[in-house]
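Course assignment 3, question 2. Fill in each field.
Student: A.L.
Task: Predict the tertiary structure for the chain below.
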Amino acid sequence: MAYTLFVVEIISAFILAATLLYRYGDCYRNHILVTVSVLIAWYFSFVIMFILPLDISSTVYRQCDNGTHPVTAATVTGTGNGSISTPTPDTQCQKPWSYVPDIVFPNLWRVVYWTSQCLTWLIMPMMQSYSKAGDFTVKGKLKSALVDNAIYYGSYLFICGILLIYIALKPGVYLDGPKIKAIASSASNTWGLFLLILLLGYSLVEVPRNLWNNSKKNYTLTYSYFKVAKLSTDKCEAEETVDDILECLNSVTAAVGPGHPLHSHVETIVQKLPIQLRDKLNSRSPPERPTPPSLKSLVNLHKKTIKALHVLQRTETQWGLMMERIFHLEDVASNSRSPDRRFQHTFHTPRPRLQRIFYPPIIEWYWECFLRQYFLKAMFVVTCILSAAVVWSELTFFCKKPVLSIFANIVLAAKSTYNYACIVSISTLVIGYMFYCAYSTVLKIRLLNLYYLAPHHQTNEYSLIFSGMMVCRLTPAMCLNFLSLVHMDSHVIKERVMETYYTQIMGHMDVLGIIAEGFNIYFPMLVVLLCLATYLSLGSRLLSLCGFQQFVGDDELTTDLVDEGREFVKREKRKRQRAEESLARRRDYSERFTNRRDEEHDNARTGLLNDVDSDYYVSPDRHSYQRDTFRPGVEDIEQRFGESALPSIRTEYEGRRRDKMTMPPKGLFDDV
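Answer field:
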């Protein structure tokens, strides 16, 4: 019974990580090493988030059992390092029903922490650089990956070397194996804390504000028009870059014939192109006097091709998802005025049977047009309270008398009544909220716009690897920061308390005096200034003044972009309507033609032509028309750049069916 909750949360963390990876990634098309590495990274991060509250409740019990639990009937004895509360003889410590033996948590945290650190600092950066390398051999790709990471890790090792020299020369401090390991852990956690505070300063305000804005239908639709207009610029730039790549490839293919030593390398580059782009390349006229390329120039061209195709896939995918969102918002706006209260879609897409049964048009109308806005407003109130509590606790967690941190007061109150369920629930809620705020912001930063997470199995390998790296780097620092908020870190509150096994394994962030006395205490207080700047939209206003396109309300540039985005949507809607009309005409014609041939076939079997071979009257194959029901107007939409990423056209069923029949390439990470 003691292991029940522990096992349930371990399994729940794995199910959650696997479900998210299945939703965003493509297990059939991505390389197996990428899938396994990302699954482990996400799974271990969720394990920390789910299991740390159990470690906290177990620590509360151990504090009580060892006479360090502050209860109302306790007597206080003074010591040189602070006060230690000891319970009276009639006080009995209640063991939590989720309590597990002491050996479980240390072994778990060792495996989780050091595995995730190896993934985020060693394995995944090498995988990411390897997948983007333009070399044509495994040895060349590994060499390029090492060179690409040498600059980054060289600066990191240089800083660590300076810190080691500083500690070695400091009197009274001796270097040994545990001390060096603590320094490495401290450097990693400090880097994670730095990034965490920057992300929280933005997301603690932006998450509630997005919920409030999403409850306003007109605002959401207008902002979506603005985003489509901005995305169209990125899409055009990506298409122009691909055109330049095709021009270079046209010259290279003309200069490198079948007997050339570099012909196999050129074919490797050409095979990376989608079929439509290959046809476009073959339709180009070759130059008159092409210059033969060198191996180094082919490597650079290969690398540029990989990046250009990746950016094109990202923009096409984001364009399709944004169009789907706008069409849905326009349907909500039009159905809100509908008197029959049945939700009608402009473009009908196949839905699973369970969704049709439990989510019929009537329920969909009440949810989308009536209940959803109130639900979002209620979530806005909840997230505002959580954000305010996190900001206040970050500002005051170093103050131990009186205790000002909200979460520390909640945990102390639950300690006195042995309310372990409250401790676990509050800890899971706060860690989960900080987890969502931090990770939902990473992929929205403009500087990191190269990476994205797109549903319906449309996220590429680069973005999956990047997300795995970020969760492994941020989660340990975020959990150590939360332990400081609830006064479970003795090095922060400067008081002798029994610490969690998580802190004992992860270490503290105060190995160096400059980190202990300044950075870890005062840097989290900057979250207040960052939240204030985000609330006033200072960053958006500054970027708008510098000429960058930002959504700042009634600005003239913003209004022009909104109108431009509305025109893009109208154009895309007309294109889809023509595609559906064309598909409907083809379907009607095929049905009439099939019925007519069936009638002729029956007449042939029963009429005067009874002696004619029946193989002559064969009904046309219907499978080709059935495939078109899943992909209306594919020829019209995919005529320029590869396979369309629109979920309404390329359904999940067809994508799963096609990918199961396609084996990944032989080369490692060559399926870009």
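Instructor remarks: The longest helix spans residues 556-606. The mean pLDDT is 78.
Grade: pending
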